[in-house]
Amino acid sequence: MGLIFFSFGISVTINVQHLGIHPWDVLNVGLFEIFGLTIGTWNVACGFTLIIVSWILDKSYIKLGTFLNAFLVGMFVDLFLWLDFLPEASHSWTDAILMGIGIVVMGFGGGLYNAARVGSGPRDGFMLSISDKLGAPIGRVRIITESSVLVLGLILGGPVFIFTFIFTFIQSPIFQFTFLRFDKLINQIQAKYHEKHLTSSRASG
C-alpha cells in the first residue's frame, strides 16, 4: 500500500511537472524525452542499476522491499498515467495545490512502506551504501547524489523549477511523521500478537 501511495504521488507531480519535480523524477522524465519508452520503465531501469551498485558496495541494504520498490513504483506510475484519470496541468494556481497533494502523498507513502522494514528503496540503499563506504554523513551524500542526478536530468531536458528545490523540505517531515506513527502501530500489533501467542502456548501447555 505504501508503494501504491508513493507511486500515485509521483504520478500527480508528473502531471504538473512544469512546476518542477523531484530530482530522480527529473532524470526519469529527461530519459523518457530523449529515448522514449515510458517514465515508469526508466524508473525501473535506474532502480535496478542502483541495486547492482549497492550490491557491489554493501549487500546489507538489499532486501525484498528493495526489489519491490524498484519494480512496482515504475509499474504503478505507468499505470496511473495510462489510466489518465488524474487532473491535467491548468497552468494556474490550482497546479500548485496538485503539486502539494502529490508531495504529501509521496511522503505518506514513503513513510508507510519504510515502516514495514522490508528493505530500503534502491535510491536510499544506494546512498546509504556510499555513505558507509566513504564514511561520509548521509545528509552530505544525499545532497551530492541528488544534485548530480538533477544536473544530469536537466541536461537531458527534464523539468526543473521551484518545486524541485523545495520538494525535500515538504516531503521529509511528512515522511518522518508517517514513518514514526506506522512504525509504532506495527510494533504495538506485533507485541499484542506475541503476547497472545505466548498466552495460548502456556494455556495449551
How is this structure best described in words?
By secondary structure, this protein is mainly alpha-helical. It has helices at residues 2-15, 23-35, 39-57, 64-83, 94-115, 122-134, 138-155, 162-204. α5 packs parallel to α8. It is globular, with a radius of gyration of 19 Å.
Write a short abstract of this structure.
The protein is mainly α and 205 residues long.
The percent of residues in helical segments reads over 70%
> Helical element count?
8
Q: Indicate the mean pLDDT.
A: 87
Largest pleated sheet: none
Oligomer: single chain
What is the rounded distance between the termini?
38 Å
Q: What spatial form do the alpha-carbon principal axes imply? A: globular
**Order of secondary-structure elements:** HHHHHHHH
Low-confidence stretches: none
* Strand-residue proportion: under 5%
SS class: mainly alpha
Number of beta-strand segments: 0
- C-alpha Rg, in Å? 19 Å
SSE inventory with pairings:
Layout: H1 2-15, H2 23-35, H3 39-57, H4 64-83, H5 94-115, H6 122-134, H7 138-155, H8 162-204
Helix pairs in contact: 1-4, 1-5, 2-3, 2-7, 3-4, 3-6, 5-8, 6-7
List keywords for this structure.
8 helices, 205 residues, single chain, mainly alpha
